[in-house]
Amino acid sequence: MALEPGRIFRDAWIAGVKKHFPGEPKASYVTPWEDTPEWERSSAASVYTQVAEFIEVSAGNTSKLTRDQKGRFVALCWIAQIYKHIPDPKPAYVADWHELPDWQRETDADIFEAIEAATA
């Protein structure tokens, strides 16, 4: 049975946090899919779909993008979801790419690559 798109996104996020986060991550960063709030599950599914469609319309040529380019795409799609679900988000929730910590940039790139693998 194939995993649902949002769960693929979330699983890639958790794996990335565990791999790249310095020290012990906040519990909310590694909350299992079943315990993730509905708005986050919906957002994860939406961003997965946006990335999958981007891969499709590029005829698979996203493999030529750098990790930074891949991660920036995921980050920007996620920021749009934050604005959709949180009326007045904290600045850190909508920080631009260059303001994100290294671990989060690496995790976002990992998410893109997990979606590439899932859609191959």
In words, what does this structure look like?
The chain is an all-alpha fold and 120 residues long. The two termini are 16 Å apart. It has a domain at 64-120. Helix 1 (5-20) runs antiparallel to helix 4 (102-119). The mean pLDDT is 95. The chain has helices at 5-20, 38-57, 67-85, 102-119. The longest helix is centred in the middle third of the chain and has 20 residues, at 38-57. It is globular, with a radius of gyration of 14 Å. The relative contact order is 0.20.
- Strand proportion: under 5%
Into which percent range does the helicity of residues fall?
A: 55-70%
Radius of gyration: 14 Å
Low-confidence stretches: none
| Largest sheet features | none
Structural class: mainly alpha
* Strand and helix order: HHHH
> How many DSSP H or I helices?
4
Overall mean pLDDT:
95
Annotation, overall tally of beta strands: 0
Distance between the termini: 16 Å
The geometry reads as: globular
